[in-house]
Amino acid sequence: MQAAPELGIERALRHLADDGLLAFPTETSWGLAANARSEAAVAALRAFKGRDADRPLSILVADAGALARHAPEAGDLARELAHRYWPGPLTLVVRAASESKGSRAFAAGVARADGALGLRCSPHPDANELAQAAERMGLGPLTATSLNLSGARAVSSRADAHTLCAEAGRVAVLAGEECGRAAASTVLDCTTDPPSVLREGQLSRSELETAVGQLARSEPETAVGQLSDPEAARAS
């Protein structure tokens, strides 16, 4: 079995631009990046994970300014929360930028069926540097799903990431630090009024209600990028 290549940021970006997949560390476990605008890259990601085409994917962003680029109609509340908690343990589900001239803003199945998009801003230095570098290059944005196969446990070590990527082929590993072991990000749907907690993670519901007022509840399977397995969900 050929070892998975370990790439620095510049080579990793070239690999992603060529529709490759990249394992990267987050504050919770290991994630899997692909160019979210590339049909080929997203198809490869789904094939690798065994993930159904109707399960949306969250995207990795560098900072709160990403809302203006990818979700200009997100609203004041989403912008306030992004400025308050990013980089941090809050995934925001917002209305994605509209498609134009018949082109799709993201690859099929990245956004939810209603056009909503999950945005995640990881505080892990390697994940955040990757998001910033991709933005400077004009690549992506990148997906922020977990590295584990669908239904499997989260990948929580660099050694395990290398093993899984080597078995798959065409999946590189980002050089750098180990992942963290924090709880999963909280997923908040800002497309509803009041906003809906799709998954309560590291940031508690009570903390959010202190910040924004009363929140609604929603069925967890509607979450953008949410995984059915609680262990795997740590990477989201």
List the helices and strands and how they pair.
Layout lengths: L5 E2 L1 H9 L3 E5 L4 E4 L5 H11 L9 E2 L5 H5 L5 H10 L4 E6 L20 E5 L4 H13 L4 E2 L1 E2 L11 H11 L2 E4 L11 E4 L6 E4 L5 H8 L3 E2 L19
Parallel strand pairs: 1-9, 2-9, 4-6, 5-10, 11-12
Antiparallel strand pairs: 2-3, 3-8, 4-7, 5-6, 10-11
Would you mind describing this structure in some detail?
The chain has 236 residues and is of the alpha/beta class. It has one domain (6-235): Alpha-Beta Complex (DHBP synthase). The protein has seven helices and twelve strands. The strands form two sheets. A seven-stranded mixed β-sheet has the order 7-4-6-5-10-11-12. It has a five-stranded mixed β-sheet with strand order 1-9-2-3-8. β2 and β3 (30-33) form a beta hairpin. The radius of gyration is 16 Å and the shape is globular.
Task: Let me know the CATH homologous superfamily.
Answer: DHBP synthase
The overall pLDDT average reads 90
Largest β sheet strand count, sense and barrel closure: 7 strands, mixed
Helix content: 25-40%
Enumerate the spans where pLDDT stays under 50 for 5 or more consecutive residues.
225-233
Distance between the termini: 29 Å
Strand order of the largest sheet: 7-4-6-5-10-11-12
Strand content: 15-25%
At the first level of CATH, what is the class? Alpha Beta
Question: Nutshell version of this structure?
Answer:
This protein has 236 residues and is an alpha/beta fold.
From the structure above, extract its key features.
18% strand; 236 residues; single chain; globular; 7-stranded mixed sheet; 5-stranded mixed sheet; DHBP synthase; alpha/beta; 7 helices
